[in-house]
Specification:
The complex is a heterodimer. Chain A has 5 helices and no strands. By secondary structure, chain A is an all-alpha fold. Chain B is mainly alpha-helical. The radius of gyration of chain B is 38 Å and the shape is rod-shaped. Classes of the chains: A mainly alpha, B mainly alpha.
Chain lengths: ~170, ~150
């Protein structure tokens, strides 16, 4: 009777893969690169400690994020994930600026389209100018502009639902 | 007597004059090395720094510290959680921008349609008036205004 194949971690670490190996569920033997890169950046004992501190149902997500960070660090040994964060923050700023400009444009258009109060017939009317003090001459319609600062709520379920930056 | 850097203090060892950590882990900020050590480990950090030119090491340590702090605060997602939120913000902003631009296009279209209509109305009035002027003439004598 043959034993089960050791997981990628135990293969790399050259040790016996115990039945309750903490790495086995997340580092299958058919993907050795996954553990190799995490081990290179974080170290096996640190990864083991991090996983042990988490409930079981959160460990898969934790491993995925560690793999992502390790890959980012390998691609960019200086900035790692921070490089991606910086790039994305710039994109957000740029989009918010474009949105503010577009919203200002809408406001201008709306103000231009305000119904023009027709000027009363001037010549034959009596000299009474009290109509100029009528409130409707000073009534600028307020248009509600959407908030340019997006609000978001932390949603762990969506963490791995997007394509990661490469 | 030289003061040990925060790393060597944490590791309880002598701080040599060529300590690779000392430029980036001053003794007055022990938390900085503690965070990084907790996530990456001292030997991994030392190896990473050794593989980089000296002028890039300070930026590297700053980034490692940031990522370590993210991981400490969010042990599941780390700084990947930040990236995910940023993607969400980008998506929201792009959607809002597209909607706003569509609104602008609608305004512009309705304005130009209204102007066209007003111009056409004016022309029709003009044609009608001038047509009346020549109404006594037969159809063959009427001037063609060239409008189809």
């Amino acid at each position: 009777m043959g034993g089960t194949s050791p997981c990628a971690s135990c293969k790399l670490l050259r040790r016996r893969c115990a039945k309750d190996c903490i790495f086995a569920p997340y580092f299958p033997s058919d993907d050795p690169q996954k553990f190799a890169i995490v081990h290179k950046v974080f170290g096996a004992s640190n990864v083991s400690k991090m996983l042990q501190e988490l409930p079981v149902h959160q460990r898969a997500d934790a491993v995925n994020s560690l793999v992502y960070e390790a890959n980012a660090r390998m691609r960019d040994p200086v900035y790692g994930c921070v490089g991606a964060i910086s790039y994305l923050q710039n994109q957000v700023s740029e989009l918010q600026m474009q949105l503010a400009v577009a919203q200002a444009e809408i406001l201008c258009i709306q103000m231009q389209q305000e119904p023009v109060i027709p000027a009363p017939a001037a010549i034959d009317e009596p000299e009474d100018k009290s109509f100029l003090l009528h409130p409707q001459y000073f009534n600028f319609a307020s248009s509600s502009s959407s908030n340019v600062i997006p609000d978001y709520s932390l949603n762990r379920e969506s963490v791995f639902g997007h394509d990661m930056v490469s | 007597m030289n003061t040990r850097c925060a790393a060597c203090k944490y590791l309880r060892r002598r701080c040599p004059s060529d300590c690779i950590f000392s430029p980036y882990f001053p003794p007055h900020d022990p938390q900085r090395f503690a965070s990084i050590h907790r996530i990456y480990g001292a030997s991994n950090v030392a190896r990473m720094l050794q593989q980089l030119p000296v002028n890039q090491r300070a930026a590297t340590v700053d980034c490692l510290y940031y990522e370590a702090q993210c991981r400490v605060q969010d042990p599941v997602c780390g700084c990947v959680g930040v990236i995910s939120l940023l993607y969400q913000e980008i998506h929201n902003a792009e959607t809002k921008l597209a909607k706003t631009k569509a609104q602008i296009a609608l305004f512009v279209d309705s304005n130009s349609a209204r102007e066209d209509f007003e111009v056409e109305s004016d022309l029709n009035v003009l044609l009608h008036e001038e047509g009346n002027e020549f109404a006594h003439l037969g159809p063959s004598n009427q001037v063609s205004f060239g409008f189809t």
